[in-house]
Amino acid sequence: MKHYYQLIFLGAIDHRLLPKIKDVFFERIDELGIDRAFFKIIDRNNFGEEYTDANPAFCIYFGNKTDDKFLDEEIINKLVKDATLLLPLIDEDLSKFNNFVPEIIQKYNGLSLLGLSMELAIEKIVANALEAFNLLKSKRRAFVSYKRSDSSGVAIQLYEYLEQHNFDVFLDTHSIRKSEPFQDELWQRMIDSDVVVLLSTENYLESEWTQQELSNANLASIGLVQVVWPEYTVIRGAQLSEVFTLEASDFINNDFRNVNAKLNEDSLLKIVQFTEALRARTLASRQDKLISTFMHYAEKSNVTATLSSHKFIELEKDGEKSIVVPAIGMPKALNCEESESLIQKIYEEKGKLDKIFILYDEIHIRDIWLRHLNWLNKYLPVKTKEIGGVSKWLAN
Description:
- About 40% of the residues lie in helices and about 20% in strands.
- It has about 400 residues and is an alpha/beta fold.
- The chain has three domains: about 5-130, Rossmann fold, CATH 3.40.50; about 140-280, Rossmann fold; about 300-395, no CATH class.
- The radius of gyration is 23 Å and the shape is flat.
- It starts with a strand and ends with a helix.
- One of its GO terms (biological process) is signal transduction.
- Keywords: Receptor.
- This is Toll/interleukin-1 receptor domain-containing protein.
């Protein structure tokens, strides 16, 4: 196999953490529907035989010092020279970061495991690896859906806490600029989100807007972290839903009936963990929905379309061989560049590709963005295609 991903573990490896990282990593790979055979695990023992700078690589470096020397420093120097992405981990406060990693990676953004539960630490590490391989969007987006008169305090608290954990969070009172069309922007931000955090309170379904938010999340197959208040029940009909049931003790002073009630930090950390864990599954579900719809249209139009093991669609139409890449949310110029680079590398041994397309769902994407994508199509070699127009395109 010529093209594969390399997951590298170096440094003072925590052998309590390592097997769990591998297990969760491959669980997420399975959820994304990618063959495990495309991944190699590399450490100092097999680095010389297995590693190549020709394929994507991501290194997790466990920081520590032994006799005033850093472990695997020579290999780290090689990886930095090859522009490999690295995630340094330390089990101390980040203020001590430089004491635990080689000088050459002291400018890298590291992750402190201090104060994190093992589960949350693993989710963060795995998410970083998947993002580095472009298997998850590097921009993490979450949408908080709530009833203002029930849970404004927790909604604002979650907005701030998820932001601190590197999510781009949408909250209706904080995220829409003045003069923007409120409802159009709200729906677009939801469709471009990875996960919806739904605050399931007594009166959540009494609002027309929250009902629509739940309906649109289900329609778009967006995963829901359903945070259920004490004494209330799970909202039924919420697809791809992970349920986190709150107890009175999860709230500061056990006060959960107050609109301005706040959660304690342990509960907030668990919600972040749920949100991290659900990302891969919801993105995979949305990708699968795009793929199945495209394959259905191709079959109806008698066009040859084959799903590759990389989850790209190989298309033969009018004597041309093209690749169709399903994208989640709004495609951007960077998606086009990354797709072209990756695909040309994967298919270089199979001969010339005529065209590359990025497939996306245009529902609830604002006209201003659709016009922008049409403008990009005039100038970029990689073109975008709306799923709503695929039937007509394939039939012509």
